[in-house]
Each structure stands twice: as C-alpha cells, then as structure tokens.
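Dear colleagues,

I hope this message finds you well. In preparation for our joint manuscript, I am sending the Pyruvate dehydrogenase E1 component subunit beta (Geospiza fortis) sequence together with its predicted structure, so that both groups work from identical material. I would be grateful if you could confirm receipt.
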Amino acid sequence: MRSRSPLSPPAAVSQVTVRDALNQALDEELERDERVFLLGEEVAQYDGAYKISRGLWKKYGDKRVIDTPISEMGFTGIAVGAAMAGLRPVCEFMTFNFSMQAIDQVINSAAKTCYMSAGSIPVPIVFRGPNGASAGVAAQHSQCFAAWYGHCPGLKVVSPWSSEDAKGLLKASIRDDNPVVVLESELLYGVPFEMSEQAQSKEFVIPIGKAKIEKQGTHVTLVAHSRPVGHCLEAAAVLSKEGVECEVINLRTIRPMDMETVEASVAKTNHLVTVEGGWPQFGVGAEICARIMEGPAFNYLDAPAVRVTGADVPMPYAKILEDNSIPQVKDIVFAVKKTLNI
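The corresponding structure tokens are as follows:
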C-alpha cells in the first residue's frame, strides 16, 4: 500500500463559511445555465450587502448580476415577469423583512400563477436573503418569515443551517421550476462548517423536502431549522453529560415538510421538542405539533410535545432584551427536562 507523500493534498474535508458556500452555489449555477441571473440591492458593484455575490458582477457582467433601486415591489415584479418569460432569476432581499414591500408579487404573482394557469406557466424564481434575528437591529429587521411563506401553497420554502445546507439547497432551488423562498441567517454567514469533497462538487444538490438527522438519540427528538439547529446540538451535548441522549433533526425545508423523518424519530424517542426563532402563534413548531397529533406518531408520545420559540413580541433593540426574546441553549435544556419530567 502506497503511503501519502507530505506534498499530496490533505484529506478532502475543508472548512467553508456559509457565505462562501452560497457564493459557490450562485457562481456554479450562473455558469451552468445562462438563463440564471441575480438581481437586488447592492448585489453587483458592491459585491452584495453581505458579500454573498462577491466577484460575480466582475465575472458575469451587467446582464447577469443587476443592481436595482431600493424598490422591492418593482424589482421583484421584474424578476417574476422574467421567470414567466423563461428566465431563472435569483431575487435577493437585503432582509426578508423588506420582502413585505413585495409580498403581492411573491404570493399573488409568483406562487399562484402555475396553479391558475393549469400548469402552463411555470415560475422558476428564487427569493433569497437573510431571515430572522440578526444582532441589535430591532423589530423591523429581525422577524422570521418561515411560517408566513410556509403557509402559502405554490411556494417551496427552505431554511439552511450549515454550509452544506446552504450550497445544496440554493442550487436545488435555482434548478426547481417552482418559486422557492430561501431563508438564510445573517448570523451564520461568517460561520465555518466542514464541507466534504462531494459537497464542493459542481453537481452537489440537496433534495428539497428532506430533513437531516444531525445527531442520533433515544430519549427525545429535537426538531429545528436554521440557526437553532446549532443551539439544539449544543443543548444535546449538555444533556448528554446528564445521561439524556437527544436526537437532533435539521428540517432544512419548511415547505414541503419532511414529517416522515420526524414521525420515525418520535416513534423511537417517544418525546418531542420543537425549536425555532419565530413567534409561537401559528409557527413552524405549531404545525409540526399539529401534524404529530393528527398522525400515527401521536400514539408513541409519552408526554405532550413542547415548543421553544421566540418571544411573542416585536424584537427589542436592547441586547439583554433581545437575548431573552430568542431561544437560548438553556431554554432548550429546560424544555427537554420538562418533557422528560426530570
């Protein structure tokens, strides 16, 4: 057996930030399909407000990477019309809070057209940008829209956590013939995650609608999406020292939701805790709990399902209040102990 020389490349797993993973995905899809183009505020000459589109304008030019005025209703309408006409736009919102300016285009124009045209007009468009809480940006920049957009038939909604999620789900979204909402987390953009050689290949995609079990466990199922997945893994590490083994499920997709994976886990652990940064009423966790109640997994529950959510208030500006409005590791640990009655 031949040994590796000191000059040969290292093992094919490297650290890649979520920002760079998204940039890779956009670069590869712009290169792969000339119908793909990116538009939004600051995406071109400035390289993106969060540097997600760094280098793409210089590489692909004005027709493929387009700076827009500060007019979400306008440029979203342009993008939806372009999708109806056969192009594949990627429409960036500087924060999903600003997608409220364009929600008529997202829902009434994009989500409903394929159905209302009896399938004759597909709308292959991606709406992407940071969603949920950032840090110190108060209520009008800190809302989670997973439940809002997950509510609407005609849309697909994905919510990545890791760099692998970010790249694989964005590429799948761009290739999909339906409108897809990609809810990223600003607080994860600079976070590095391990990415395998396979995940860094140009053909790597993650199927929309499939959750991932990030950690196997036997005592309780934790289900989360986006940044709270990391909090669940931290809570699981804390609880493991006390003899409690949590199974952590990264939803990845909000709509369509992979309930089969959640149900199978609940059948194994007999307990369920959902975790999200959004508000409690009509939230993602509420939907998961309702479906567990209505489905076969309900018979396996040994205790009521518990939701860990953001506080039911507009996000405060003050840091100490903000911290208390977003689920923390200690809140997840408390919820697990409550459901296990320990």
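For the figure legend, we might mention the following. DSSP finds eleven helices and 14 strands in the chain. Confidence is low (pLDDT under 50) at residues 1-6.

With kind regards,
E.M.
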